[in-house]
Design a protein that fits this description.
Layout (H helix, E strand, L loop, with lengths): L3 E2 L7 H10 L4 E5 L9 H14 L3 E6 L3 H5 L12 E6 L5 H8 L3 E4 L2
Parallel strand pairs: 1-2, 2-3, 3-4, 4-5
Length: 111
């Protein structure tokens, strides 16, 4: 399946999402733990995720143990209502957390 990547700090992300959707793209990937990203990330994240979801895109996101603090959210499950259906786990997640997250999201692990 063909998909796109978009990033919170990319000023062209909205345009890329719309253009890809117009071409029939139905899958998107983003990263939610890039330490260099600054600013009101939650507002930006919500805007981009809702836009992608409105165009019928299935959204997957790269997350780490720092994602919650980085975005100022309390739990990973808070990402589901924003349209994130799959997450890619970076290192450090314990077995219990992986099992818990697998009940909410489709999972991928970075190796």
């Amino acid at each position: 399946m063909i998909g796109i990547s978009f990033y919170l700090q990319d000023p062209h992300a909205e345009t890329q999402i719309i253009h890809a959707a117009d071409l029939g793209v139905k899958r998107a990937f983003t990263s939610l733990h890039i330490p260099e990203e600054k600013g009101d990330l939650v507002k930006r994240m919500i805007r981009l995720l809702k836009l992608a979801e409105a165009y019928g895109m299935e959204i997957h996101a790269d997350v780490s143990l720092n994602t919650l603090d980085h975005l100022g959210i309390s739990k990973f499950k808070d990402l589901w209502p924003l349209g994130i259906k799959g997450i890619r786990l970076d290192d450090g997640f314990d077995k219990e957390t992986v099992i818990s997250l697998s009940k909410v999201f489709s999972l991928m692990q970075v190796r």
